[in-house]
Specification:
The chain has 344 residues and is an alpha+beta fold. The protein is built from 13 helices and 10 strands. The longest helix is centred in the middle third of the chain and has 20 residues. The chain is globular, with a radius of gyration of 21 Å. The termini are far apart. Bound molecules: adenosine-5'-diphosphate and magnesium ion.
């Protein structure tokens, strides 16, 4: 994208020419693919925002295509569980996305020890995540990178999906051919690990299942060191898939390569029953269905007994406002390093 087009794109989202010093930077909260993410406040309204830098250095093609995709997608979305993109800004030659500020990300907030989440709070997080996904999928968008650092939480206990850098619009009727090198490995569904390039929103639902378990255990549950290991970690908990349950299995490109030498039994309920309630286990198991065709959709998941029949009902963790400090993956890493140094 050339300079003129960029200026036009910026002008389209800005009613007035960009004013410098419209925002005061208060700190650095994260590092993105295209630069840093800053916390800033709007000088006039005092509203907190995140400024996500899109650096063009080293980009031969000018404004990065994936960043453009993220901007365009976010502009078309508006939902309580999806971060709002307020505007685009250019300052000192660098482009910024001005996004609603979120105090924590999920991986950060699960690591802190100050505020303890109840089962009702975790149910609320789970429902908010699924509401965001149901909205995206309804709008024909697959997120393709659902994980703790891309799910943000604010001090009012609201959860919002963020980071649309890998998101794609999909054709509802016709499944298109995509790259399968998406979704961070620990959250990647089996069909992608087995090489599928034709897929749909079900890929996000597997990741959501991983997140649901992580909410309760506080740790990513399927931590493989490489792709082969990853599928074996899944085998270990979910058992090896059967052809009855997943008839499409044998036609996946890397099926032979990852084929288990012997069948492994499912240990899911046994392994997770100390963390989740029976209806919670039911839902997680339906999200982590091997067969993408039978995997529960976000809209169906919102109707699950876990939300509508089993107590406790979901409660928004409003008490989080008392939390001191802000927890993003960056702070929790720093905290971890600090602890490690102390322990060493
Ligand atoms: P990338 O595409 O490079 O992963 P992200 O959008 O995920 O970029 O941003 C990187 C990190 O910055 C996030 O994991 C989060 O910790 C922080 N961050 C991003 N957006 C916001 C926001 N709106 N409010 C607060 N922190 C944010
Ligand atoms: Mg991210």
């Amino acid at each position: 994208m050339g300079g003129h087009e960029l200026a036009a794109a910026a002008a389209a989202t800005l009613p007035e020419p960009p004013k410098e010093n419209l925002y005061v930077v208060l700190g650095h909260v994260g590092t993105g693919t295209f630069g840093k993410v800053f916390k800033a406040s709007h000088t006039i309204s005092g509203r907190m925002v995140a400024l996500k830098q899109i650096k063009m250095e080293g980009e031969k093609e000018g404004f990065p295509v994936t960043a453009m995709r993220e901007v365009k997608l976010l502009q078309s979305l508006r939902h309580d569980n999806v971060v709002r993109l307020y505007e685009m800004m250019v300052s000192h030659g660098t482009v910024y996305m001005v996004i609603e500020y979120m105090d924590h990300d999920l991986s950060g907030v699960l690591q802190q020890k100050e505020f303890e989440f109840t089962d009702a709070h975790l149910k609320s997080f789970c429902r908010q995540m699924l509401s965001g996904l149901a909205y995206l999928h309804h709008k024909g968008v697959i997120h393709r990178d659902i994980k703790g650092s891309n799910i943000l939480v604010n001090s009012r206990g609201e959860l919002k999906l963020a980071d649309f850098g890998l998101a794609r619009v999909y054709q509802k009727r016709r499944k298109s051919d995509y790259t399968n090198r998406v979704i961070t490995q620990w959250y990647r569904p089996p069909e992608l690990l087995l090489g599928a390039t034709v897929y749909g929103p079900e890929v996000d639902m597997w990741s959501a299942g991983c997140i649901m378990l992580e909410l309760f255990t506080k740790h990513p549950v399927f931590q493989g060191v490489d792709e082969l290991q990853q599928i074996y970690v899944i085998y270990k908990w979910m058992g090896t898939p059967t052809l009855e349950a997943w008839p499409g299995l044998t036609s996946l490109p890397w099926y032979e390569l990852f084929k288990p030498t012997e069948p492994i039994p499912n240990r899911f309920r046994e392994g997770f029953k100390k963390w989740l309630s029976p209806a919670g286990l039911d839902l997680a198991e339906q999200l982590l269905s091997w067969n993408p065709e039978t995997r529960i959709t976000a809209a169906q998941a919102l109707e699950a007994p876990y939300f509508n029949q089993e107590s406790p009902p979901a409660v928004t963790p409003v008490g989080m406002s008392a939390l001191e400090g802000e927890w993003h993956e960056m702070e929790s890493k720093r905290e971890r390093d600090k602890r490690r140094r102390v322990e060493d």
